[in-house]
Structure to design on (153 residues):
């Protein structure tokens, strides 16, 4: 079953995902935002089960020597972290009892980029999957991934 946590930007989708994980167990990833001078500075990927945290997204003007996997607006995704997430997602349905969480599915995936292939694969598994999606992207996400049966949270 697919469960979708939806809301506007900064509405608490990640917090809801964390609460659901604490209540239900399982594994997966959430993105934790760090602010600097009143704007998002970076996002870290947090693996829920292990607590491991790595820099996933930085502002382009804050890059050092990191390799870039893809970008959206002023933000770039760090290749090493993207590769870690992708390889971990492939083992979660086998290694995890309980739901799998993925925060967040958005514009890149609508364009069939970013984590599109990974989310498509997760949806094809016989698992309980929680995704966070901005309200403004919800209809396009449902269409892109051909989702007809889901529950909104």
């Amino acid at each position: 079953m697919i469960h979708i946590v939806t809301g506007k930007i900064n509405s608490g989708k990640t917090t809801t995902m964390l609460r659901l994980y604490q209540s239900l167990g399982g594994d997966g990833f959430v993105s934790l935002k760090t602010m600097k001078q009143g704007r998002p500075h970076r996002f870290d990927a947090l693996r829920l089960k292990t607590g491991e945290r790595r820099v996933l997204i930085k502002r382009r003007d804050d890059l050092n020597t990191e390799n870039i996997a893809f970008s959206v607006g002023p933000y770039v995704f760090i290749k090493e972290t993207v590769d870690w997430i992708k390889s971990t997602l492939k083992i979660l349905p086998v290694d995890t009892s309980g739901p799998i969480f993925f925060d967040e599915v958005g514009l890149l995936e609508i364009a069939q980029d970013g984590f599109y292939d990974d989310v498509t694969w997760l949806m094809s598994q016989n698992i309980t999957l929680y995704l966070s999606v901005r309200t403004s992207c919800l209809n396009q996400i449902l269409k892109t991934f051909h989702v007809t049966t889901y529950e909104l949270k």
